[in-house]
């Protein structure tokens, strides 16, 4: 049996409030890592949920764009669709348009997956990119300061989809993963890499996630059917940022302080 993981979930009134909390946490993690060792390394996901956070981070009416030390951030991706960066489905392309083009992050600090290449080549090149950027030796595993994840209504996270080969990958950092249900290839970090993150955070909103989230956290373990269950950080801590709807079938969360999100905990 895997060792226990303490899950903390913060429940916000709606998706915009959750996105603001995610942006605040993103900024805090960068500042914390830079203060500790002069650089921050974060890996972000694609999908619709992070887009609201990107817009907040780039919005001059919020403090983030001006106060985050963007020049000290190294930004990586958790997964990518096999399309060129100009394609509207590109995870990198969406982030570039909503965030990177509007803040002062140096181009050399942005490490995208090359979705326009053959999937196997792109995965191999990204593994080499991570090893070189983080100066990894031998079988050393990368340690990101923060990894941000979403979850699909089918229980997938990153591009670890149900009943696909990447679920069982333990040795590589990044792999190409064929998804029969979508008849497409994806590029994804593997679960052992994600689980080495200093902080691993899910951001989940919407009614279509309510049932599957409850199954992932409180149902029987079945990682082939619910790949999000693979995410069990090695430090024993997992954080979820949720809106009220997504959290509706979890054990009740409580209010710790006025004006703060409701907080619940459980062990998986």
TrEMBL record:
What keyword terms does UniProt attach to this protein? Hydrolase
InterPro entries, sorted: 6-phosphogluconolactonase_DevB (IPR005900), 6PGL (IPR039104), Glc/Gal-6P_isomerase (IPR006148), NagB/RpiA_transferase-like (IPR037171)
Q: Name one Pfam family in it.
A: Glucosamine_iso
Under CDD domains, the record lists:
6PGL
Glucosamine/galactosamine-6-phosphate isomerase domain sequence ranges: 14-239
- The UniProt record lists the EC number as 3.1.1.31
* First-tier enzyme category under EC: hydrolase
Superkingdom of the source?
Bacteria
Asked if the Swiss-Prot or TrEMBL record annotates the protein with the keyword Hydrolase, the reply is: yes
Q: Which reaction does it catalyse?
A: 6-phospho-D-glucono-1,5-lactone + H2O = 6-phospho-D-gluconate + H(+)
**Pathway it acts in?**
Carbohydrate degradation; pentose phosphate pathway; D-ribulose 5-phosphate from D-glucose 6-phosphate (oxidative stage): step 2/3
UniProt-recorded Gene Ontology molecular function terms = 6-phosphogluconolactonase activity
The record's Gene Ontology biological-process terms are: carbohydrate metabolic process; pentose-phosphate shunt
Q: Which family does it belong to?
A: Belongs to the glucosamine/galactosamine-6-phosphate isomerase family. 6-phosphogluconolactonase subfamily.
Q: What does this protein do?
A: Hydrolysis of 6-phosphogluconolactone to 6-phosphogluconate.
Protein name, as recorded: 6-phosphogluconolactonase
Question: What is this organism's lineage?
Answer: Bacteria, Pseudomonadati, Acidobacteriota, Terriglobia, Terriglobales
């Amino acid at each position: 049996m895997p060792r226990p993981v303490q899950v903390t979930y913060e429940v916000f009134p709606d998706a915009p409030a959750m996105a603001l909390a995610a942006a605040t946490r993103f900024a805090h993690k960068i500042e914390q890592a830079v203060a500790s060792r002069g650089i921050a390394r974060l890996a972000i996901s694609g999908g619709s949920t992070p887009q609201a956070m990107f817009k907040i981070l780039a919005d001059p009416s919020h403090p983030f764009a001006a106060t985050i030390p963007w020049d000290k951030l190294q930004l990586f991706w958790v997964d990518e669709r096999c399309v060129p960066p100009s394609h509207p489905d590109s995870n990198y392309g969406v982030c570039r348009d909503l965030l990177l083009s509007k803040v002062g992050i140096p181009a050399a600090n942005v490490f995208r997956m090359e979705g326009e290449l053959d999937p196997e080549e792109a995965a191999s090149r990204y593994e080499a990119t991570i090893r070189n950027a983080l100066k990894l030796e031998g079988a050393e595993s990368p340690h990101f300061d923060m990894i941000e994840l979403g979850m699909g209504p089918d229980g997938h996270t990153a591009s670890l989809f149900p009943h696909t080969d990447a679920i069982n990958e333990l040795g590589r950092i990044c792999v190409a993963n064929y998804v029969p249900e979508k008849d497409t290839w994806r590029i994804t970090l593997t679960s052992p890499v994600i689980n080495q993150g200093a902080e691993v955070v899910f951001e989940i909103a919407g009614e279509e996630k309510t049932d599957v989230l409850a199954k992932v956290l409180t149902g029987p373990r079945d990682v082939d059917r619910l790949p999000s269950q693979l995410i069990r950080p090695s430090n024993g801590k997992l954080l979820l940022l949720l809106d009220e709807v997504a959290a509706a079938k979890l054990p009740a969360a409580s209010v710790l302080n006025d004006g703060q999100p409701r907080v619940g905990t459980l062990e998986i």
